Amino acid sequence: MLPAGRVLGLDVGEVRIGVALSDPERRVALPVGTITVAGAPHDLRAVAKLVAEHGVAEVVVGHPISLAGERGQAAVRAEEFADGLRAIVEVPVHLQDERLTTREAERDLRAAGSGRRTRQAVDQAAAALILRAFLERH
After folding, report:
1. How much is the pTM?
2. SS3 (DSSP) at 53
3. In what order do the strands lie in the sheet with 16-22?
4. Domains of the chain (ranges, CATH numbers)
């Protein structure tokens, strides 16, 4: 059984980190913003601040495994980011398969007729999809 409380979802990219947050009952995953990547210490502290501000019980980091199931550079970067978070936050940090979430986020924004198809909106939507997949799995 997982602890109760909000879950923070992250889509870690090279330029931005998409951020999503669940409600305390873990029924809804909502995009809440992005963090501009500035380097590991700054990025990790920015996420730790969100964990504290929102009373987050768990963190989920998107894990971009290839369609063939292989770990590329992006997957290794996500793993290293998750390891860094584990060292500075006192809540569980999980990896969640995120194959195709960016494409799905772009498709969902297009289908919704959203004019906000900026990279930031896509990154936030991808984080929400990662978080939703985690919530549905648990």
Report:
1. 0.86
2. helix
3. 29-36, 16-22, 6-12, 56-63, 93-97
4. 6-137 (3.30.420.140)
